[in-house]
Amino acid sequence: MANNRWDSDVVIAGGGLAGATLALALARMVPALRVTVVEAFPLSPDALPEDYQPSYDARSTALAWGSRLIFEELGLWPQLAAHATPIRHIHVSDRGRFGATRLHAEEHQQDALGYVADNRWMGLCLMRALSNTAVSWRAPAAVVHMEPLVNGVRVDLEHNGEPQSLTARCLVVADGGRSGLREKLGFVARTRDYGQNALIANVTTSDSHQFTAYERFTDAGPMALLPHGSPEKPGHQSALVWTLDDRELERMLGLTEQQQCQALQQRFGWRLGRFTRMGQCHHYPLKLTTIDQPVRSGVALVGNAAHALHPVAGQGFNLALRGLMTLMEQFRLASLQHQSPGDMRVLAAYHRHHQQDWQQTVRFSDSLIRIFGAAPAPLAVARDAGLLGLDLVPGAKRWFARNAMGVGGRRPVVADHSSSESR
């Protein structure tokens, strides 16, 4: 519920995919709240979705089926679907061994198990939708400091090189884990370094992907190939996520494109035929980062600012999206009850409802790394039997599928946190 004492009800630090999605959710589900987004990159009025031309080297994100349901709820899915490649089959295997499991959308009476969408396309769709809302933007700008106030916060900015300040009832940090803002605010992150790197690139193969995502566990670490390109016809382009240690990463980056394709062929195999092209390579170190207490009075961390996962199961953004909807739901309830969105009871309820989901998702992703990392032969045989068991045992396969589809965690919960007697 708006209060003229404050410049804004909610300030969102970061206008990327997480911040923009939260802003849209609040605009459409809690319109009584005044929302301001602070984004480091300038906004281009010419960047409209209908002008979008897919690039071969576009970075992409795997969207679980549960994420589609969320975007449908926000009214954004019809736009996103125009360039979202469906994942209709998932093939999980262990290189050089017999273990494998296969998931098919038709087994779950759905069109797809998930989707692959270019990050830029999702950003354009979000910007277009937000342009028709009351959400205000400060860009290019960055939050440099925050000071607690009674029932709110003062947020200090640098906007176009000039210092500014906003008063708000709640600051939501959605600018990822690399900006340093969460550390400036005193949050302590727990980090586990996997000692590996993710190499990201788009590749072309001689055989069509047939809308199949491949998760391949090797002695050097996992790799994934996700169908990319047209949502209508099965094509030959896939998005690669390849786990490499420092030495192998340096070697790969020093190879020619043809040599990179040969190295990938040797590691992945021939399920997609010959690798004929490998696009621009991006890479980043792999770490598991969590914040035990991502909320305090007037402040909440979301997305990668609150938790960053290994990309092995493609769960990072999908987990973040569920958390954003949980936070939105608590803000909606607070607005109905004339509570401040920065009230610690409101933010504690968000953390409580989201915590089980992120703990379960972290365990699921982290266990895959531990089980399918380099291991002695007896454990390798056991995990192959486990993969084969997943393929044969309906209950186990459904559990695996629900986690892969992003519907294994808890859905946002409407909770009454106005008093101890409310439940």
From TrEMBL:
<dbReference type="GO" id="GO:0071949">
    <property type="term" value="F:FAD binding"/>
</dbReference>
<dbReference type="Pfam" id="PF01494">
    <property type="entry name" value="FAD_binding_3"/>
</dbReference>
<comment type="similarity">
    <text>Belongs to the UbiH/COQ6 family.</text>
</comment>
<keyword id="KW-0503">Monooxygenase</keyword>
<dbReference type="InterPro" id="IPR036188">
    <property type="entry name" value="FAD/NAD-bd_sf"/>
</dbReference>
<protein>
    <submittedName>
        <fullName>2-octaprenyl-6-methoxyphenyl hydroxylase</fullName>
    </submittedName>
</protein>
<dbReference type="GO" id="GO:0006744">
    <property type="term" value="P:ubiquinone biosynthetic process"/>
</dbReference>
<dbReference type="InterPro" id="IPR002938">
    <property type="entry name" value="FAD-bd"/>
</dbReference>
<feature type="domain" description="FAD-binding">
    <location>
        <begin position="8"/>
        <end position="365"/>
    </location>
</feature>
<dbReference type="InterPro" id="IPR010971">
    <property type="entry name" value="UbiH/COQ6"/>
</dbReference>
<comment type="pathway">
    <text>Cofactor biosynthesis; ubiquinone biosynthesis.</text>
</comment>
<keyword id="KW-0285">Flavoprotein</keyword>
<keyword id="KW-0274">FAD</keyword>
<dbReference type="InterPro" id="IPR051205">
    <property type="entry name" value="UbiH/COQ6_monooxygenase"/>
</dbReference>
<dbReference type="GO" id="GO:0008681">
    <property type="term" value="F:2-octaprenyl-6-methoxyphenol hydroxylase activity"/>
</dbReference>
<keyword id="KW-0560">Oxidoreductase</keyword>
